[in-house]
Amino acid sequence: MKWFLLFFLLFPAFARAATIEVCKTCEVQAIDDAIARAKAGDIVKVQSGIYAGPLFIDKPLHLIGIGRPVIDGLHKEHVFYLRADDTTIEGFVIQNSGSSYISEYAGIRVEEAKGCRLLNNIFENNTYSIYLAKVDGCLVAQNQITGNAKDEVLSGNGVHAWYSSHIVIRQNDVQRHRDGLYLEFTPDSLVEENVISHNLRYGLHFMYSPGNRYFKNIFAENQTGVAVMYSKNVEMLQNRFEKSWGRVSYGLLLKDISDSRIFGNRFSKNTVGIFADGITRILFEQNDFKNNGWAVNILGNSEENIFSKNNFYENYFDVATNTMSPLNTFADNYWSGYRGYDLDRDGRGDVPFRPMKIFGLWISRYPELVSLLASPVIEFLEMAEKVFPVLTPKSLEDKTPSMKPLTAKL
Amino acid sequence: MKKIFNSPVVTIALFEFRENIRNKWLLIYGLSFLIFSGILTYIGTGDPLQASASLLNLVLLLVPLFSLVFGSISFSEALPFHEILVALPISRRDIFLGKWIGLGTGLVLSFLLGMGAGSLIQFNIAQQGFGSYLLLLCLGCCLTFIFLSISFYVVTLARKKELIFGWMLLLWFFFFVLFDVLVFGVVLLFGDYPLEIPVLILMLLNPIDLARVMLLLKIDLAAMMGYSGALFQKYLGNTLGLFIGGGALALWTLLPAWLGLRTFQKKDL
Amino acid sequence: MITIQSLSKHYGRQKVLDGVDLTVSDGVLFALLGPNGSGKTTLLKSLLGIVAPDPSGEIIFNNRSILGKKSYKRHVGYMPQNPKFPPHLKVRELVTLFEKLRQKKGVHKEKLAADLQIDRFWHKPFGELSGGMSQKVNILLCFMFETSLLILDEPTLGLDPSITFYLKQLMREKKTEGKTVLFTSHVMAEVEEIADRMALLVEGKIYTVIAPQEMMRQRKSKTLEEALHLFWNKTNPDEKNI
């Protein structure tokens, strides 16, 4: 954040720059012509109209579209190819990048640059919409990004960041790509207030990207909402994970994550709200889990995680695990399935709640058992298991279940 | 129209229907739906998902059990009277179908009234998914006729009247409990193989399971479980699925009824 | 006229009727006489299509084969032994049901109902009727239609004496109207009293078809019982228990 304040403090320096107008009746009629004429730091104003790509930018410039000019990549290479620091691209429609099995073509590709600003553009029908490679400091905001992804092989990601850092992705609408947002080896970045939906694989996918923060995003109807892998010190606050339905669909997939906070999020109507594989010291607090198949499936290789003050409403299975001796803590959560009582009136149930059902265990191992959902045979086994736990861990319990739903206080 | 109304099937069906609505067992049957559905929804108000699952199981338990037992008793008790009817210039088909329709209508009516009155209490569920509630009622009606058909068929086959009641309980136990244990065993034993199609076929082989799966797909429980793309959803979850499921249920209704009729036509009374 | 040709019936391995040949001409009171279990009821039920006889036999009624048919039953009235009527059904409703199913008015309904005093329980369900009351309704259902053949299975069994008298009168009356009345009985005095002709049926076989009076005349006996005793000892010396 500090870095960005610095960036904005330097902003008045642009004011001294010259402006070049581009339009069909202007002196300069082609954008690449304007780029060639401009000096570093100049502003290129493009009036509405359709202009052909690909465009190559090799010096710091500010390209501003007036009245939404369209840049058509004509299905060749990248529509914009940016290899310059401190460049702005704002107000364009950017469409029809190339598509290839070998190269990763994008609507805007930024490479080895510092400080780019990609604002308020509309992306359509690009393989990748924005591709940041080895970029330090880039603001991607208020873009409408719609991909053309039909299968995972030929399609690309909405915003793809690779070996970059200090990226801010804010208030974008990203849909119909392979992954909505993809961050790999991209630490210290901020993703907030985006709406990310209908992506083929993950809404947000990040790996090896420690210190990232994800605030107030909506992930809806992606195959999996968010997949977080091999990272530390991640913060996920107040996001919504909705309607990731399917055999391998999760609201939030956590793999090898440690020392992070997952706070005040809402998980609803996912096959699995959170799937956790090898996570350590993560605090899950004040999240709402509602109408999921499984609210939380936490594998046995996860340790020292804390689930506290979350609300579990009407999930078919609240918690599942594959170990008999889980090492995570559940405390002070509200469980809509809890039928205990509170004689001492301290707001916490006097009988521990055991959120794991045996059928949840079986069904995740043998998916065809879904056909026996709600069968009396299963209910009977469930009851027997409750009385004499054999297959579910005794230690997986909330000793202080809240009697009432908890209202989130952030 | 008057001709249809005066046809022997209708005459016998009407007589049978009237005879049955006077039967106290049918009243008890309807009342039990009223009471149990009321209790279930009252307990389960916090969790409509759980409540609708319990309501479903209530229907799946009571409807087949009562249809089997009441159907078989009613049919076998009526055989001496059928003897008198056979001596009249009407066909045995008319007698059989009339009995089947009249009795089935009586059962369905008392089921619907019981559940319907119960639904006044459970407006919560009705609001959340009126469509699935209607489907539940439809499935209950289908199951009534299916198990009535089965009971009639067994009665026409049975030599010893005293054993019929036992047979009915056994059949009910098989369809309601044993079959699921079987499916469970199959899945656990052969879980390493692709089992979707075999399990789907197994579901078609048990009307109770079929009804349950159809309703669960409707209330999106199974979709939530992650099978929206899977075969169940594909074959049973959509409109086509309703037709496949409905077709299988129709077959389950008609096949035993037809077999029963065939045996009845040759049976010495 | 009813002609029965080599009619047999097996229940599993058990043979109940064994090649029965019998002709019953019109306008007679015909008795099937035999001990319990001799196959009398099975023979009647075969005539009514209640029991399907073995396919080798044949039954002709009014010059037509009737096996597997139903329309001839318009001409047949039937009075079963110990009828079981549905318990919630009212007498009135059953009578209406019969009229509807036969698509005919029970022309003798009023007279019979009055004679038998059925009016008193006309609106009662069968579950509340005594055995005697049920028997009265049984008579009503059989005789209220105009049919050319009446089949009665042990009609006097369990009837109280006054009704028995009425029923016998009714049977004679029908005969004089030119109708055929076929009934079974194991009571020889009754057969002697009312039957024009009788067939002796033992273990599924017909032993003789004769007028009871003729049988008594031939054996020079005062009662049919005695005549039959003599007949039986001559025919089958080993068998004494008729």
Describe the structure in your own words.
Chain A is mainly beta and 410 residues long. Chain A has 2 domains: 196 residues, Single-stranded right-handed beta-helix, Pectin lyase-like (Pectate Lyase C-like, 3 Solenoid), CATH 2.160.20.10; 152 residues, no CATH class. Chain A is built from 4 helices and 36 strands. In chain A, α2 links the parallel β1 and β2. The relative contact order of chain A is 0.06. Chain B has 269 residues and is mainly α. Chain B is 86% helix and 0% strand. Chain B contains 13 helices and no strands. The radius of gyration of chain B is 20 Å and the shape is globular. The two termini of chain B are 33 Å apart. Chain C is α/β, with parallel strands linked by helices. Chain C has one domain: Rossmann fold (3-Layer(aba) Sandwich), CATH 3.40.50.300. Chain C is built from 8 helices and 10 strands. In chain C, the strands form 2 sheets. Chain C has a 6-stranded mixed β-sheet with strand order 6-7-8-3-9-10, with helices on both faces. In chain C, strands 2-1-4-5 form a 4-stranded antiparallel β-sheet, covered by helices on one side. Chains A and B meet through α3 and α4 of A and α4, α8, α9, α10 and α11 of B.
Descriptive terms for the model:
heterotrimer; A: 410 residues; mainly beta; Pectate Lyase C-like; 2 domains; 13-stranded parallel β-sheet; ten-stranded parallel β-barrel; 4 helices; C: 242 residues; alpha/beta; Rossmann fold; six-stranded mixed β-sheet; four-stranded antiparallel β-sheet; 8 helices; 10 strands; 35% helix
